[in-house]
Every structure is written in C-alpha cells, then in structure tokens.
Design brief:
- With 323 residues, this protein is of the alpha/beta class.
- It has a single domain, classed as Alpha-Beta Barrel (TIM Barrel).
- Helix content is 48%, strand content 11%.
- It is built from 13 helices and eleven strands.
- The strands form three sheets. It has a seven-stranded parallel beta sheet with strand order 2-3-4-7-8-9-10. It has a two-stranded antiparallel sheet with strand order 1-11. A two-stranded antiparallel ribbon has the order 5-6.
- The longest helix has 25 residues.
- It is globular, with a radius of gyration of 20 Å.
- The two termini are 18 Å apart.
Length: 323
C-alpha cells in the first residue's frame, strides 16, 4: 500500500499492519531540515513581474519542499499552502506535487467556512452581532459554506486533491468559545452541510480544532467528518477517553503534547509520545501527529526524537519495520 492508501484506510477506520500513518498539518522547520524557506514564509511581492517560466520554477521548488518533507519524515499526507493564494495557483501547485510524487501521498488543503473563535479585536463585535442580528449571522454562515462548496466543485473537476482539513478553531483550553447550545445553532448545521458537500464530491474531511472539545465532541462527530484533529492535551483532551466515546465512528489524529516538545524535558517527551501511541493504537482509526503542528520555534531535534519513537513503537501487530 502507498502512504496515501494507508492514510485513507486509517481515515476509514480500517485495520492496518506496519507503521501507524503519520503527518503534520504544517512542518515549518524546512530551513533547519533542508536549508529552504517554507513556502508559507516566502514573500512573492514580485510574482506578477515574473515570467511564466520563473513562476513555474518557484512552484516546483515549493512542491519539492513538500515532497522532501514527506519523504524524510515518512508522512503519508501533505497539507498544501498555496503561496501566492488563489484557485489557479492552488491547482498548479497540486499538479506540480503530483508530477513529482504521483499518487504516493494524500493531498489536502484548508477548507473551513464556519465560525470560529474571533480575534481579540473582533470578539465583542461578533458577540453583539449574534445578539442583535442572529438571522443575518446565520445567512452569512450559509453564504460562506456555499462559496466554499463552489470552489470545491472546481477543484473536483480539476482533480488531484484528496481532501480538506477544516482548520477553524472553536475552543480555548477551558472549553468552546460558544456554549454547546449556541454552537448547535451557529456552527453545527453549517459544518454538517459543508462536510456533507465535500463528501458528496468524493473528498475526505478532517476537522481540526485546538482546545477542549469535550463539551461539543458529540456535535463534531455527528457532522460526520472522517477524522478529528488535534485532540489537544493542553485542553485536557484525553485520547483514551475520546477513543472510548467515539472510536470507530471517526478517525482520531494527534494528541502529542506540543508544550512538552518545545519546553519539556526529554523524559516528558519520550513518555508522552509513547503513551499517545499506545492509546491511539488501541483499535483502528488513528493517525499519529502533534497536537498542533511543527511550528516555528519548536526545536527540530525534538520533532526528530518524536519521529524516532514513532518509528520504533508505532508499529501494529509486532510487524518489523525495515531499517
């Protein structure tokens, strides 16, 4: 099975042998790993002055960074971040990655269109709008979903993309921004329609949110994504508990403690990664990753320690992984 096929099997909660599939929403440490700036961190202010040939060379360089990261760290999936943005650039980037790697890797992009935790400057305005004009807020939520699905239809016609990661955050470490009742009114119906629309087009859907999702876990699962990410331990999300509640209904991704990876002791990292693997591998439907991403400032050596433990311990049914 290719890494892509193994990733899809995990999303479908099918049994696997060998290594637990692994990926990261973002791997920003490309300068340390490869001596190249991550595509998202590049300034393309002169993009429209470039010749078509120059632009193609930049796209291929970005595509190579994504593929090199997946190859070095045994990722089964690649999350693409088009830069510059726009549908045409996205489609050309997909084509570049497929040209280099074929169907080896599962390809996804961000595709959320639902309300999340507002920025600090917008928080009071959003709360006031819910109180003063609730129907207008709901109509905007509907419009956002329609726009996302229209874009997805164009991507579907082009081909090459496997799925969407819905990366709107709903929760703080203490719980969701909206109460469960308000969440059921202003988010859940639109998330369900967005997810169903993507699935009907043949895409896989991964729902990401940091923080404590437990008060809205049932609502998230009821919208029928293929997977939930990031199962944030800093939000007191316990992987064993979540497995017992919804395991088999949805694939679970993540749960390695990013705080330990960045500032914890090596012993804390080793113990946490091992415990996460044991909990995740108890039954089908688990994909190994951090509880956020491999972000700027996280020591590469810590991620590589996590990766080494996964290679040694993240193996189903005693299979021997070739050196």
């Amino acid at each position: 099975m290719t890494p892509r096929n193994r990733f899809i099997s995990a999303l479908q909660c099918k049994p696997l042998t060998g290594l637990v599939p692994h990926f990261e929403l973002v791997f920003y440490l490309t300068m340390e790993a490869f001596g190249k700036v991550h595509p998202s961190h590049r300034n393309y202010g002169q993009w429209f002055q470039m010749t078509d040939r120059e632009r193609h060379l930049h796209r291929m360089d970005m595509a190579n960074i994504y593929v090199d990261t997946a190859e070095r760290y045994n990722h089964s999936a690649i999350f693409l971040h088009p830069n510059p943005s726009g549908l045409d650039e996205l489609l050309q980037l997909i084509d570049c990655v497929r040209e280099i790697s074929g169907d080896t890797y599962f390809l996804m992009i961000h595709g959320d269109a639902t309300y999340g935790v507002p920025s600090g400057s917008d928080m009071m305005d959003f709360i006031e709008r819910i109180a003063d004009e609730p129907e207008k807020v709901k109509q905007e939520a509907e419009d956002q979903v329609n726009e996302a699905l229209t874009k997805a239809e164009k991507i579907s016609q082009h081909g090459g993309l496997d799925g969407f990661a819905l990366c709107t955050d709903y929760c703080f470490n203490t719980g969701p921004f909206l109460s469960p009742n308000m969440f059921s009114e202003y988010v859940t119906p639109y998330l369900a329609r967005l997810t169903r629309g993507y699935r009907d087009m043949g895409f896989y859907v991964i729902k990401h949110t940091d923080g404590n999702i437990m008060p809205i876990l049932d609502q998230l699962v009821d919208t029928e994504p293929h997977a939930l990410h990031s199962l944030d331990p800093q939000g007191d999300v316990d992987l064993t508990e979540v497995k017992s509640l919804v395991g088999g209904r949805v694939c679970l991704i993540g749960n390695v403690h990013c705080g330990f990876l960045q500032t914890g002791t090596e012993e804390e990292v080793v113990r946490n990664v091992s415990d996460t693997l044991k909990a995740g591998m108890s039954g089908e439907g688990y994909i190994f990753s951090t509880s956020n991403c491999v972000y700027t400032g996280l020591p590469l050596a810590r991620y590589e320690l996590m990766h080494k433990i996964w290679m040694n311990e993240g193996v189903y049914r005693g299979d021997i992984v070739p050196a």
